[in-house]
Specification:
The complex is a heterodimer of chains A (760) and B (65).
Chain A (H helix, E strand, L loop, with lengths): L3 E3 L5 E3 L2 H14 L5 H18 L10 H14 L3 H33 L19 H21 L2 H9 L2 E3 L12 E2 L2 H5 L3 E2 L4 E2 L5 H16 L6 E3 L2 H23 L5 H13 L6 H14 L5 H32 L11 E5 L5 H16 L11 E6 L12 H14 L3 E4 L3 H4 L37 E8 H7 L4 H27 L28 H4 L3 E7 L1 H9 L7 H25 L2 E6 L8 H10 L25 H14 L6 E6 L6 H13 L4 E5 L2 E3 L6 E2 L16 E2 H8 L8 H6 L10
Parallel strand pairs in A: 4-7, 7-8, 8-9, 9-10, 11-12, 12-13, 14-15
Antiparallel strand pairs in A: 1-2, 3-11, 5-6, 10-15, 16-17
Helix pairs in contact in A: 1-2, 1-4, 2-3, 3-4, 4-5, 8-9, 8-12, 9-10, 9-12, 9-13, 10-11, 11-12, 12-13, 13-14, 14-23, 16-17, 16-19, 17-20, 20-22
Chain B lengths: L21 E2 L6 E6 L2 E3 L7 H9 L4 E2 L3
Antiparallel strand pairs in B: 2-3
Classes of the chains: A alpha/beta (760), B alpha+beta (65).
Chain lengths: 760, 65
């Protein structure tokens, strides 16, 4: 008598005839059958056959596959064709489900047992430490949800196109959960205080609290969205904190000097309620009048001295507040500790003394670096360049633009955005910071508004989701035929639009309470008009739906043998291709009233994936698939020798077309901090040629042993060690003095250390 | 990390050069780079495609310019 059966995972389970009968009956039922006796008959025949094959224990036992094969065969032999078919379908479906499970389990196994150094998956996002407990936990969730969405939520054609690498759906792991990013209006947020979802915070009363709360706002919002967070009006938002700190400091000084500070403080606070600035001309006049009138026993000279002292203390506090902000944004956790918030701050145009103090000090704090002089990774700083404000000598914030150049030459940030670029300038209205272009993270741009043309502003808005095209593949498939290229490009664009709209629907049915900070605290535009159980559908329409692209250079190479750095003809074709994508997005925007836009994809996690798939499919094509990455968006390939000027000139026209975001980089050799004029010239060239957003890359190395920051080739210029070598303790002690350098420049020079220390 | 050499009691004093104490052995340099818009503290965390891209970069301008 047959008693056991081997399962796929090699476990042995009892054999029952009943189980076979039930499976056959279910198959028959699905075809409208109801004859259980027939099912039992089949089961009996299968058992009988198995008894013959396995007469005793010595003959072993059948496995599941064999039993199922036998069931199929018996059904067909007895003429139950439809039931047999249903049974086979059912079997195939089960196999598929099993395979899915194994694929997921394989992924989980790799995540569990492989280090980030061996697992590309764990290094997909360079700012997440894949080796930590929470980093791995995040990856489990991310990989599992991606596979779930691919199988159950995406339309099969979208899922297939994503899997095949025709398109890339970014942040797929968050597909059904949330939207990408938001430009937080920090000024509005602070008015009256806010709730993080875990507790209420009062309106801050000093610059230090303002800066701490700005960090908390970025952190809280980061947990409601999957992309980066940006503050578009950083100095405007912080300025009030400076004014409040000044009042407190003045009161403190008066107090120490034995005057009754209370009435002065009350008068100044009341004044600040009615005015934007107190350190401006009008404000300072009022301060002096108040001192004279409330403290008549105080001499004018003494009053002046008290004001100066208060200003000095306010400046110090502002520096400390900005230092704290930079430190916090490099250490505070988001996403269960796996990463720090991806944060950006935009500033540069506020000409009030308070705003200027904020800009100056946030730059200086960044220049000084973190605790051991490390270069801060976050926030991304974006300095807004504007003619008449900070672009030319003599303009009110020109000194800050110069300082921004100096800091960027040393620390890689700030990047520079250009309000005067024609496509940015159309939105600009003087005196309305919300109409000044801002950028988020590595390049996202949101300002135009088809849904509500009355509100073409940056505040409270962001990207909903974006999906990128694999341009090189379309180029390869067209086999050099440009006319064949455009129709296939059109098909892909339509596919992406369809996919973006499908995703929008899953995002739209979410409720305000799903986003306690983003929507619950009114960060997202108009969400303050909704209740906790309202759908976010309407307010999401202010966001952008964005199509991106990778590898314009390789696409051109495949189509006509040259990329846009190599010939003007290629540049013309390149412009035609991107213009076409933009035209389609504009057309879709008019048709739907939604903000369809085009982004020059940053390629995070994607730079290697498309090319790997295309190498497998088409082999190695010189200039197209022969490297481990496709070139970022519309960039001239990184390996192509070209002058800074030409690179900027060739990339600038694409900035005008990519209304969802763009950036141009120039790679610079040597230490730009020794030649700020040359650095500024490159930034000015970007502005003059119509770039919207740009930055300069240069090597920033650091020796953690002696603390030197600058360029290190093979040998550290300060302590003279090679990588991995030690230095004598005595020498190290001497060098560590550099952190607080008390020597004169001459002494430093004679010691062979040419790097000046940071002076504040 | 380092202990002064103390001769054992009763034994003859050993003539031995005092070892130079070293710091920083095995410590590499940090190389901060911008890739896809974000700064990263070390290229170790880049995925393979990004590492290759960083390796291939050529300069557009020298700061002597």
């Amino acid at each position: 008598m047959l008693s056991s059966l081997k399962k796929r995972d090699s476990r042995t389970v009892p054999f029952t005839r009943e189980k076979i009968a039930r499976a056959v009956f279910r198959a028959a039922q699905s075809q409208g059958g109801s004859d259980y006796a027939m099912a039992e008959d089949i089961a009996a025949r299968v058992s009988a056959e198995l008894e013959i094959r396995y007469p005793d224990e010595a003959a072993g036992m059948p496995d599941v596959e064999e039993v199922q094969d036998l069931v199929e065969k018996t059904l067909i032999e007895l003429g139950h064709a439809r039931t047999a078919k249903a049974y086979i379908l059912y079997r195939n479906e089960r196999t598929r489900v099993r395979e899915r499970k194994t694929r997921l389990m394989r992924t989980m196994r790799d995540l569990t047992f492989k280090d980030a150094s061996e697992s590309d998956l764990k290094r997909e996002n360079a700012n997440i430490d894949g080796d930590t407990a929470m980093g791995t936990m995040l990856k489990y969730g991310s990989e599992a949800s991606k596979q779930f969405y691919e199988m159950y939520m995406l339309k099969p054609e979208h899922s297939q196109a994503h899997k095949d690498g025709d398109i890339h759906i970014h942040d797929l792991d968050f597909f059904s959960l949330t939207t990408t990013c938001c430009q937080i209006d920090i000024k509005k947020l602070f008015e009256g205080g806010f709730n993080t979802g875990h507790g209420f915070l009062r309106e801050p009363e000093s610059i230090q609290s303002y800066s701490a709360l700005a960090c908390i706002a970025l952190q809280s919002n980061q947990n409601d969205q999957h992309g980066g967070q940006s503050i578009p009006n950083f100095e405007y938002g912080m300025a009030r904190g400076v004014a409040k700190s000044f009042i407190s400091k003045l009161a403190l000084v008066l107090d120490i000097r034995g005057y009754d500070a209370a009435p002065v403080r009350a008068a100044l606070r009341a004044w600040l309620k009615e005015h934007e600035s107190i350190l401006g001309e009008e404000g300072m006049l009022f301060v002096r009048e108040t001192l004279a009138c409330r403290l008549p026993e105080m001499s004018a000279a003494e009053a002046e001295n008290a004001v100066d002292k208060a200003l000095e203390l306010t400046e110090k506090d502002t520096y400390q507040a900005m230092e704290a902000l930079v430190h916090n944004l490099n250490t505070m956790h988001s996403r269960a500790g796996a990463q720090i918030p991806f944060s950006s701050i935009n500033y540069g145009t506020d000409t009030s003394p308070e705003g200027r103090m904020v800009i100056r000090n946030v730059l200086l704090a960044t220049e000084a670096g973190l605790g051991n002089g490390e270069t801060p990774i976050f926030p991304i700083h974006i300095f807004k360049v504007k003619e008449g404000v900070n672009y030319r000598k003599g303009e009110p914030n020109y000194d800050l633009f110069r300082l921004a150049c100096r800091v960027s030459a040393r620390r890689l940030f700030p990047n520079f955005s250009f309000i005067d670029a024609p496509f940015n300038k159309v939105y600009y209205r003087a005196g309305h910071p919300e109409t000044e272009i801002a950028y988020m993270g590595c390049r996202t741009r949101v300002i135009g508004n088809a849904h509500d043309p009355g509100r073409e502003i940056v505040n409270g808005r962001g990207n909903l989701s974006f999906t990128s095209l694999n341009l090189p593949r379309l180029g390869i498939l067209a086999r050099g035929d440009v006319d064949a290229f455009f129709p296939s490009l059109d098909d892909r664009i339509s596919l992406v639009f369809d996919q973006l709209l499908e995703r929008l629907e899953t995002q739209s049915v979410k409720k305000v309470r799903n986003y306690p900070f983003l929507m619950g605290q009114g960060i997202w535009i108009d969400s303050d008009k909704l209740g906790p159980d309202d759908e976010v559908r309407e307010v999401l329409k202010h966001g952008t739906l964005t199509i991106g692209f990778i590898g314009l250079a390789e696409c051109l190479k495949a189509l006509i043998g040259q990329h846009h750095g190599e010939s003007e003809a290629a540049q013309e074709l390149g412009k035609r291709i991107i213009r076409h994508i933009r035209d389609r997005a504009d057309e879709k925007m008019r048709e739907t009233g939604l903000n369809f836009s085009v982004i020059a994809t940053p390629a995070e996690g994607l730079s290697g994936r498309f090319v790997r798939l295309d190498q497998e499919r088409f082999g190695v094509i010189p200039g197209v698939t022969d490297r481990e990455y496709y070139t970022n968006s519309f960039h001239i390939p990184v390996y192509f020798p070209i002058s800074a000027y030409d690179k900027i000139r060739l990339e600038a026209p694409y900035h005008a077309m990519t209304n969802g975001g763009h950036i141009t980089y120039v790679e610079v050799d040597g230490d730009p901090s020794r030649n700020i004029d040359a650095f500024e010239d490159i930034i000015r060239a970007m502005k003059e040629m119509g770039v919207g957003y740009g930055s300069i890359n240069h090597p920033v190395d650091r020796d953690p042993v002696c603390g030197y920051t600058g360029i290190i080739n093979d040998v550290c210029p300060r302590c003279g060690r090679h990588e991995g070598e030690g230095i004598p303790l005595e020498k190290w002690r001497r060098l560590k003095g550099y952190a607080k350098d008390y020597r004169s420049p001459d002494e430093r020079a004679s010691a062979g250390d040419v790097t000046p220390n940071i002076t504040l | 990390m380092y202990a002064e050499h103390i001769p054992a009691k009763g034994s003859a004093p050993v003539l031995e050069q005092k070892p130079v104490q070293m710091v920083g052995e095995g410590v590499g340099f940090e190389r901060i780079r911008r890739i896809t818009g974000y700064l990263v503290g070390t290229v170790d965390r880049f995925n393979n495609g990004k590492r290759a891209e960083e390796r291939d970069r050529v300069k557009h301008c020298s700061m002597g310019c």
